[in-house]
Amino acid sequence: MISDRVNGGRVIRTVLPAEAEAIAALHRRARSTYYPDGLPDDGIDWSATWRTAIERPDGHVLCVVERGRIVGLASFRTPEGAPAETVKLFQFHVEPDQWRSGIGTALHSACVEEWQADGKRAAVLDVHTDNVRAQAFYARQGWVPDPENPPAEGDHHLFLRFSVPGE
């Protein structure tokens, strides 16, 4: 479990189960920005989904809190069937009105610190092909296309890989 970290007046900490609804709302706001026809109704109860993610003993959900408001979130764990030294970044969102303010970079750094502490050597993620802003962010952080997982024809996701720096 990550301890609270203060970074430029922002606190980066583990999300609490009671915050699942706030996390789900941030998730919806951020995702809606890269769907040109609006966020599709996928029928998922995102508050329940986030509550489950937060309570997973093998998962991590971090948030960035600024002036009492959650403005960023990251969810990661080792996926089933993956090598123990690999972690998957399942969700990474910043409040849209806070983009380009350093929140994402600070949150990504906290994730990398946690991965290093957990002995992870590689991180993977998938990003929607229409989310070019996120793709540019990940490229700036050092993520590259995953050579072991090229995109399949018709798939709407790109698969990226990050080499976790060693100690």
Describe this structure in words.
The protein is globular, with a radius of gyration of 15 Å. Helix content is 29%, strand content 30%. The two termini are 19 Å apart. The chain has an 8-stranded mixed beta sheet, with helices on both faces. The longest helix has 15 residues, at 103-117. It has a single domain, classed as Aminopeptidase, CATH 3.40.630. The chain has helices spanning 20-32, 46-55, 103-117, 132-141, and strands at residues 5-7, 10-14, 59-66, 69-77, 86-94, 122-128, 144-145, 157-163. It is built from 4 helices and 8 strands, in the order E-E-H-H-E-E-E-H-E-H-E-E. The chain has 167 residues and is α+β, with helices and mostly antiparallel strands.
Q: What is the gyration radius calculated from CA atoms? A: 15 Å
What CATH architecture do you see? 3-Layer(aba) Sandwich
Largest beta-sheet characterization: 8 strands, mixed
Helix content: 25-40%
Instruction: Describe the global form.
Output: globular
Sheet/helix structural class: alpha+beta
Beta content comes to: 25-35%
Give the termini separation. Answer: 19 Å
**CATH topology assignment:** Aminopeptidase
CATH class: Alpha Beta
Unreliable runs, pLDDT <50, ≥5 residues? none
H-E order: EEHHEEEHEHEE
Topology:
Layout: E1 5-7, E2 10-14, H1 20-32, H2 46-55, E3 59-66, E4 69-77, E5 86-94, H3 103-117, E6 122-128, H4 132-141, E7 144-145, E8 157-163
Parallel strand pairs: 5-6
Antiparallel strand pairs: 1-2, 2-3, 3-4, 4-5, 6-8, 7-8
Helix pairs in contact: 1-2
Question: What keyword list fits this structure?
Answer:
alpha+beta; 4 helices; 8 strands; globular
